[in-house]
Amino acid sequence: MSFTDDMTVKQARDLLRGLAQNGGHDCPVCTQRAQVYTFGFNGAMARGLIRMYRTGGQDWVNVPDLGLPGGHMLKARFWSLIEKPPELVREDGSSRVGVWRLTEDGVGFVSNRVPIRSHARIYNNRCLGFRGDPVMIVQVLGKRFDYHELMNG
After folding, report:
1. Which one of 46, 62, 104, 128 has the largest count of C-beta atoms within 10 Å of its C-beta?
2. Rounded to whole angstroms, how far apart are CA atoms 35 and 124?
3. Cα(75)–Cα(9) distance, rounded to whole angstroms?
4. Does the CA dihedral 26-27-31-35 come out positive or negative?
5. b/e map 84-123, b = 16+ CB within 10 Å
6. Which residues pair with 101 in a beta bridge?
7. How far is CA 9 from CA 2, 16, 23, 124, in A?
């Protein structure tokens, strides 16, 4: 099935949702790429959480001050391992202030007591659910980021 001019918005939305789940497609209205990504929890993310824990325990930490490469560690929010303060905003109104803290599950994961599912399914910066087996932090510490795994789901 393909997009047609006589489709209802619901029909087009349902079609795009299906296409996004199966390899992705450009939205016919805004041309933005619509794709569900399956993101695996990797060693760099685990090391970032450990650095957060060593720096602040379960207190608020300014993550950019940790000098971590890339922003992948912040994807730990999809597993509810970190959280940001809801009330903190920049002068321009943005909530992107760089301050995060480990949740109870985050501390448990860093302490090798709480397992997480190995992969999160992410669409439009929201977690749709999880896949894969439960893993502990010691199992993911050696796991490298895999671009092909991300793109192929």
Report:
1. 46
2. 8
3. 31
4. negative
5. beeeeeeeeeeeeeeebbbbebbbbbbeeebebebbbbbe
6. 83
7. 13, 10, 21, 19
* Helix, strand, coil share of the chain (percent; to 5): 35, 20, 40
DSSP state of 22: T
Distance (Å, rounded) from C-alpha 109 to C-alpha 139?
A: 11
The first and second tokens of residue 77, run together, are: 């929010």
Burial zone of 149 (CB within 10 Å; 0-12 exposed, 13-18 middle, 19+ buried): middle
Instruction: List the end-to-end C-alpha distance of the chain, in Å, as a whole number.
Output: 22
In DSSP notation, 49-97 reads: HHHHHHHHTTS-EEGGGGT-SSSGGGGGGGGTSEE--TT---TTS-S--
pLDDT at 5: 87
- What is the Cα–Cα distance from 151 to 153, expressed in whole angstroms? 6
- Half-sphere exposure of residue 89, counting CA atoms within 13 Å on the CB side? 6
